[in-house]
Structure formats: structure tokens, C-alpha cells
């Protein structure tokens, strides 16, 4: 993996990272917003401590552990990636409540256009802010966007110590089973 200087990472602030999407996906995973490492590389969930890629594999969504640079392979499995808020920041707490609300509106439009079977938002706090649902918990939601069902997953950031890679993989696997049903 390429090593970036602090100045190179800072230069990636506010950069946009293209979605990995197609029409009719089984699951569209939705991160909070790109981190600086993701923006610098152009690859989703690129920070080495982020557990998204290992958990995706452990849960059975992918037959092998993919590297962030292999993100386009997700499409062959009927999977994709987008974000609630498009702009890159060092930390999610740099985002405003309005950015989350606007991100939720834009995400709902994107989902209505792409029509995935499931939207999987990785991060309950981001989901609550984007969709004004303060009582949402990890798991399937009552909300739908058109025919798309919604599932909230734990945030795979290394900072989310409440969830281990194994317990996250179990929750991701529950979604995988629902998406395959």
C-alpha cells in the first residue's frame, strides 16, 4: 500500500470518491463519508485499520479477502459502495447535521434510481442523522426506499471497539442471508 505524508492526506480533504454502483445490485453498502486515505487512493474503506474488507469476506459476501484497490470486483458479486456524504474528511464528526440530512436525500434518490434489493448503511449514527430516525438500531429497518429494503450495519472503523471483526461478520452474514433469500 502506498504511504502518504500528512500533507498528501490533507490535500485529499473534500475530494470526491466515485461510487462503485450498477443497476439492480443485491446490496448497496453505504459508508458515512470517505476518509482522507480513501480520498487519496480513490478506493473505499482504504484505511488499513478499517475492517470493512475483512468483514465482508468473513461474512461470506466475497469468496476471498479483497483489497480496496479491487473494489470494482464487488460488482461481479452484485455488491456496490456509496456514501451518505460524498466529501472526504479526516473524521465523521467534521460533518454537519445538514450534510447528513442532504446526504440522506441524495442517497434516497440514488437508491430509487439504482434499485438495489438492500441498502446497507454502515454506521447506525450516520443512518439516524441522514434519515432522522433517532431510535434506529443495527439490523433490518422498517423503512424502505421504493422496493429497496434497508439494513443498518455496525461501522467497520477500527475506532468502533464495541464490535469485533467476528461479531460484525455475524451481522453482515445476517444481511447476506436475507439478500440471498
TrEMBL record:
GO terms for biological process: base-excision repair, AP site formation; epigenetic regulation of gene expression. CDD domains: UDG-F2_TDG_MUG (cd10028). SUPFAM superfamilies: Uracil-DNA glycosylase-like. Its EC number is 3.2.2.28. Residues 18-179 form the Uracil-DNA glycosylase-like domain. Signal peptide: none annotated. InterPro entries: MUG/TDG (IPR015637), Uracil-DNA_glycosylase-like (IPR005122), Uracil-DNA_glycosylase-like_sf (IPR036895). Keywords: Activator, Chromatin regulator, DNA damage, DNA repair, Glycosidase, Hydrolase, Isopeptide bond, Transcription, Transcription regulation, Ubl conjugation. It comes from the Bacteria. Pfam families: UDG (PF03167). One of its GO terms (molecular function) is pyrimidine-specific mismatch base pair DNA N-glycosylase activity. PANTHER family: G/T AND G/U MISMATCH-SPECIFIC DNA GLYCOSYLASE, G_T MISMATCH-SPECIFIC THYMINE DNA GLYCOSYLASE. This is G/U mismatch-specific DNA glycosylase. The lineage of its organism: Bacteria, Bacillati, Actinomycetota, Actinomycetes, Kitasatosporales. The gene is mug.
Amino acid at each position: 500500500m502506498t504511504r502518504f505524508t500528512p500533507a498528501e492526506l490533507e490535500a485529499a480533504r473534500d475530494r470526491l470518491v466515485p461510487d462503485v454502483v450498477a443497476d439492480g445490485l443485491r446490496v448497496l453498502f453505504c459508508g458515512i463519508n470517505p476518509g482522507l486515505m480513501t480520498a487519496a487512493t480513490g478506493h473505499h474503506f482504504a484505511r488499513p485499520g478499517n475492517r470493512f474488507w475483512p468483514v465482508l469476506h468473513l461474512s461470506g459476501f466475497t469468496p476471498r479477502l479483497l483489497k480496496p484497490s479491487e473494489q470494482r470486483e464487488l460488482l461481479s458479486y452484485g455488491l456496490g459502495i456509496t456514501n451518505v456524504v460524498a466529501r472526504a474528511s479526516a473524521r465523521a464528526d467534521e460533518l454537519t447535521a445538514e450534510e447528513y440530512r442532504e446526504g440522506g436525500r441524495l442517497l434516497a434518490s440514488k437508491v430509487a434510481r439504482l434499485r438495489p434489493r438492500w441498502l446497507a448503511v454502515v454506521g447506525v449514527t450516520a443512518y439516524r442523522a441522514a434519515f432522522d430516525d433517532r431510535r434506529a438500531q443495527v439490523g433490518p429497518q422498517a423503512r424502505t426506499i421504493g422496493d429497496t429494503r434497508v439494513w443498518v450495519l455496525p461501522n467497520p472503523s477500527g475506532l468502533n471497539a464495541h464490535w469485533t471483526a467476528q461479531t460484525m461478520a455475524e451481522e453482515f452474514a445476517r444481511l447476506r442471508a436475507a439478500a440471498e433469500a
